[in-house]
Design brief:
The protein has 210 residues and is α/β, with parallel strands linked by helices. The chain has helices at 13-23, 29-37, 60-69, 96-106, 123-131, 151-156, 163-170, 174-187; strands at 6-12, 41-51, 73-78, 80-83, 89-93, 112-116, 135-140, 159-162, 198-199, 206-209. It is built from eight helices and ten strands.
Length: 210
């Protein structure tokens, strides 16, 4: 008799954050982990994000620390600076390669890959993982305007799950969100304004204008 399905999660952090924000809720990562642990043998839960190293305060650092201590494998990379055509300094971070390498290394050891991203650049990766015998579930949304999920990625996936369908299971309680934001505001130095990282449809392409 076969055992429980072996599952691995691959979370494109910036893309999932932008998708949940577009749907009007925050992800509770403890509940997310519990949800997929209940669906089978969860071998690994990867979380990918780019970070700005010289930023004195970043709202994502407490999340990264919590994930690292609570069952997630956090993969980070420092952002890179460049000057665009108009002479503005921008900061960009892309985690596609890191996610793809990890997925290919695990593909033959899992039954199901769950990809939290709508980035169409992952279509070829999904196809390659499928060729190695694993099913691929993609979690994103078509409920936003425009949809966060690229059509080619949705077509390639074995299963598409709209994030809004998971809100009741993995969403953070709104009251908890208000308390955590109050704590965050208190901990932030008033002399250091937070620079905003803008996550667009490219997911873990994070670009900062200055």
């Amino acid at each position: 008799m076969s055992g429980p399905s072996k599952i691995a999660l691959f979370i494109d952090g910036a893309n999932l954050h932008a998708t949940a924000k577009a749907l009007g809720f925050d992800v509770d990562y403890k509940r997310l982990l519990s949800e997929f642990q209940s669906r089978g043998a969860l071998l690994r839960a990867f979380y990918y994000t780019a970070i700005i190293e010289d930023q004195e305060y970043s709202s994502i650092r407490p999340l990264i620390d919590w994930l690292d201590y609570n069952g997630y494998t956090v993969v980070t990379k420092a952002t890179k600076e460049f000057i665009d055509a108009s002479g503005r300094r921008k900061v960009k971070g892309n985690m596609d390669i890191e996610l793809a390498v990890d997925a290919m290394e695990l593909a033959e050891h899992i039954d199901e890959m769950v990809l939290f991203s709508g980035d169409g650049a992952f279509r070829s990766l999904v196809e390659a993982v499928q060729r190695r015998g694993a099913r691929v579930t993609v979690v994103s949304t078509t409920a936003s305007h425009p949809p966060m999920i690229a059509d080619e990625l949705r077509r390639q996936a074995d299963v598409f799950t709209d994030l809004i369908e998971l809100q009741a299971k993995i969403g953070r309680n709104p009251s908890e969100r208000s308390v955590s934001r109050e704590r965050e505001t208190r901990s932030r130095s008033p002399q250091v304004p937070e620079r905003e990282t803008i996550a667009g449809l490219r997911g873990n392409d994070s670009v900062l204008d200055e």
